[in-house]
Write a structure and sequence with these properties.
Blueprint: H1 4-16, H2 19-28, H3 32-55
Helix pairs in contact: 1-3, 2-3
Amino acid sequence: MADKNIFEKLFLEAEKTNLQVLMDNALNEKDPDKKKVLMAIYTYAIGKKQNELLKKKEFVI
C-alpha cells in the first residue's frame, strides 16, 4: 500500500500551486490518463480555495 504521506504532500502542493498553472498543464496534456489526473488535482485545489473563501466572515451571498 502506498505511503499516506505521499498523497498528503501531493494535496498540499496542489493547494499551494497557482490554479492557472494547474489548468494550463491539464489542458495541454496529450496523454488522456495524465489529463484526467491533472484535472482531478485542479478540481481538488479549486474546491479547497473556494471553501476557504466561503469561510471568510467578509464573504456574503
